[in-house]
Amino acid sequence: KAGVTQTPRYLIKTRGQQVTLSCSPISGHRSVSWYQQTPGQGLQFLFEYFSETQRNKGNFPGRFSGRQFSNSRSEMNVSTLELGDSALYLCASSFEQGNYGYTFGSGTRLTVV
Amino acid sequence: GENVEQHPSTLSVQEGDSAVIKCTYSDSASNYFPWYKQELGKGPQLIIDIRSNVGEKKDQRIAVTLNKTAKHFSLHITETQPEDSAVYFCAASISGANSKLTFGKGITLSVRP
Asked: Terminus of chain A with fewer CB atoms < 10 Å: N or C?
């Protein structure tokens, strides 16, 4: 069965712009979580969505937001991009809420210039 | 909040030898401990996990041990192969609907042929 699909794979944006990243979970998985990965901070939790509702949120500014659709697909948005937002953004899906048995996608590499 | 530390940050072993990666966690309420392997250009892949009601779990060449008293857990890889070379992350969480994974910074394992 298909894995977690993230699009696009690579993105270059300019400071001040906004960006939308997309994640399609494994078929049947209802929970989608987002993580930011950087060399300095490692993997940091952004938020989790389940049944179209945000269930948990990490310590990121309000510029980072997300949503989940009725088909469980999820998008995250970053507004007013800063250089420090350059990172690999990873999406993970699981059947239930929480983080048992996460399957991660390959990520979207965002570069802010 | 939870803090997870991994030691060492890099590890190099000869093919066929064993590798041990250790992690410590700070929150005694944590009860779920997964290990992820990340290869270049890919997202983290769950390789094994353990819950706090067991002390050890094995899956072929991989095993994880948990010491709740000392708040540390370890990944053991036996008969290492070059394809085991990757970055390994440990993580911890308190299971539940609003849980999130807290990751260690990762360790780069190199298996020399």
From this structure: N
